[in-house]
Amino acid sequence: MLDKDGIAKRIAKEIKDGFYVNLGIGIPTLVANYIPEGINVVLQSENGLLGMGPFPFEGEEDADLINAGKQTITTLPGSSIFDSALSFGMIRSQKIDLTILGAMEVSENGDIANWKIPGKMVKGMGGAMDLVASAKNIIVAMQHVNKAGESKLLPKCTLPLTGVNCIKKIVTELAVLDVLPGGGFQLIERAPGVSVDYIRQATTGKLFAEDNVPEMIFD
Amino acid sequence: MLDKDGIAKRIAKEIKDGFYVNLGIGIPTLVANYIPEGINVVLQSENGLLGMGPFPFEGEEDADLINAGKQTITTLPGSSIFDSALSFGMIRSQKIDLTILGAMEVSENGDIANWKIPGKMVKGMGGAMDLVASAKNIIVAMQHVNKAGESKLLPKCTLPLTGVNCIKKIVTELAVLDVLPGGGFQLIERAPGVSVDYIRQATTGKLFAEDNVPEMIFD
Amino acid sequence: MINKVVSGADEAISDIENGNTLMLGGFGLCGIPENCITALVKKGVKDLTCISNNAGVDDFGIGLMLQQRQVKKMISSYVGENAEFERQLLSGELEVELIPQGTLATRCMASGYGMPAIFTPAGVGTEVAEGKEVRNFNGKDYLMEYAFDADFAIVKAWKGDTAGNLIFRSTSRNFNPVMAMAGKITIAEVEELVEAGELDPDHIHTPGVFVHRIFQGAGYEKRIEQRTVRTKN
Amino acid sequence: MINKVVSGADEAISDIENGNTLMLGGFGLCGIPENCITALVKKGVKDLTCISNNAGVDDFGIGLMLQQRQVKKMISSYVGENAEFERQLLSGELEVELIPQGTLATRCMASGYGMPAIFTPAGVGTEVAEGKEVRNFNGKDYLMEYAFDADFAIVKAWKGDTAGNLIFRSTSRNFNPVMAMAGKITIAEVEELVEAGELDPDHIHTPGVFVHRIFQGAGYEKRIEQRTVRTKN
Lengths: 219, 219, 233, 233
Fold this sequence. Notes:
The complex is a heterotetramer, with two copies of chain A (219 residues) and two copies of chain C (233 residues).
Chain A: H1 4-12, E1 19-23, H2 27-31, E2 41-45, E3 49-52, E4 75-81, H3 84-92, E5 98-101, E6 105-107, E7 112-113, H4 128-134, E8 138-141, E9 153-154, E10 169-171, E11 175-179, E12 185-190, H5 196-201, E13 207-208
Parallel strand pairs in A: 1-2, 1-5, 5-8, 6-9, 8-10, 12-13
Antiparallel strand pairs in A: 2-3, 3-4, 6-7, 10-11, 11-12
Chain C: H1 9-12, E1 21-24, H2 34-43, E2 48-51, H3 62-67, E3 71-76, H4 83-90, E4 95-98, H5 101-112, E5 117-120, E6 134-137, E7 140-146, E8 150-161, E9 166-167, H6 176-180, E10 183-194, E11 213-216
Parallel strand pairs in C: 1-2, 1-8, 2-3, 3-4, 8-10, 10-11
Antiparallel strand pairs in C: 5-7, 6-7, 8-9
Pfam families (chains C, D): CoA_trans (PF01144)
Family (chains C, D): Belongs to the 3-oxoacid CoA-transferase subunit A family.
InterPro entries (chains C, D): 3-oxoacid_CoA-transf_A, CoA_trans_fam_I, CoA_transf_BS, NagB/RpiA_transferase-like
């Protein structure tokens, strides 16, 4: 079973050389720490930056330079700044190769719910609806089950949707799963020491698994 | 009867302090020479410039700095450069207070034709259709009659239209005329020495004239 | 050149009235018009509709206007950092309309570009789509979203000149340029105001034609919302 | 950072094929991609559809491609400066689609912004409106115009860096940034190519994400179409 950094580390393997990537808040942010050596990646922050760097050194914070999570950050050589409309323009025109974000629920047909729980204070969708509606490749990073022990991989989302038919891949503490074009979750890899049966029990949506589903390999 | 500079000079009196103005090719370009002292005006060139200045001094031409007529120009202090989309964005959102352009024909209801003569090589409408469709205030600078001696102020345009119901005012070598909201040309001023009858003969469209139409006054 | 300079925030916002719709630039607390917000609180104008990506924090930004119950309605994409906001929302004192961030930005831009409506796929198939026209282009569904209509846009820039030209600094640019284009009246406060001619025309982000009033602000706090750092080793 | 540098114009355009649709930046002869045009003439690729505000002059710019009969169709707003163009048009060798200049620019922008269509009042009530959807917003009619779909966009910038970021100079900016956003593949030639990190991120007009290939051009003629001057007295 993976911890959050393990999930981030596994997702980082999906990033290819030359990718422009948008990382959501939470586990997705951690992915930046595990991008393999020699892979050139540009991180987009949807508040208006391409070429996001690491956090600043103490004392070098700049109030004018933050990411979409409102954290102080830095820029890397070759970065560019733009306004919010152009930022979502490049998202909408699919110039961003990969979006990684968290979710409360994902359904068999790739629907995602991650912004609203009825009865709770709604904070807003931020840029999530724009990202999931436009990105050509979306990976969800999340826990396989919620705090109540219920599966977050469902036949149909129960929470208000963020986007429909958009999620392609899910990485959890238990597994890597693809969302099949015809519906259903295809088990691609198991976390070290986790059995297919265990994953099946934690997955309420339809799960497809080949005979010998490999364990994840970390270098 | 006015010459081209006279028409330009008369139109210049319509420009108010603080106006952003777009000047078309031909007589409209001459208007810039007659903007009264103490009137602050910013000239827009739709290829992407606010704050257009006069032609450069000989030897100081810059191939990268031209107006919409492809002429070498200069910028004034406070000018700004932008791309073609933003240029027409500000035109469309009516940030430009006044557009002055030439015409082949204007109709009683403010339609304008100025881009195409059937049977002749068509060069294109350039930015004229955008300008006339969006500007809140448009003045046409033109000769009252064409080379064949036919009126250019008509009940209905005979040439392909550039825009409909958009022209508010016309200044010719003979007169200043307003296009009435209900249709028809209201004679506002006569050129020095030109009679109302003469103007009426040169105007095929419906002409309204009060009893004592004043002569134009130039300072 | 046309001079857009006013004496300060009080003069700049003097004709904002109860019930007006305001756009306010900024992302979180980054790039917000601090001086104008202070002046709005002082003026005590009420029943405002505020279009702004966020609603500030309890004691800064739009949060200061919320404290004084000056806001009737917020139109935002994310409002999570404000307890007073939550209290007013749950008690029914405050109305909120949540909009996808890209839709918010593009509806501002549409206004500045004179486009009455735009198409975006954001929100298709969700409750955001309720009551909206859905249109299919090339096999993909889009929502038609309308341009915003705001009485005033209030933005914060880094530098500006007397002709109203604006230059923004780093990610404090965010919503400021698209809102600057979209106000019936646009008010810009800047950290440094210079004479027309001192800014390079090629570097200007917002041409002066969009800005009606400009002034040099004072005492910028530029509060950091999430101070995240690493340590040198 | 991702490196977008190619060796030169020949490599940059090597996969452009007969029948492709190209966007070409520039306004008149100002800001045109001279090196790529030379390379396209050399390559001899044919049956091109060219989206460009103008068609060059007889012996420069797109005029050079017209001379070689490489262009099947021009999509422009104004094509008045070119006798060979007129000859081919009248003889039926060349097809031309004339579009209002703002519509042309906005259809490029729409593509870059991922908006399948936009609304503009330009051309309402004229022959430009024929066959197009007219829609009324707030009492005013607008035409619905579609985003362009171009195989390649070829632009010219002043400075660029290895990450593909572009800065334009003066009015040679014109259509270049909106086309740079709109190509399936975008090729940029620049007068000066620098290392990533040498350009101020706040000054970049076109972020590198839109640019797929970049190279430093050579031998720019930058011909002036209408040399207008005044004399010192």
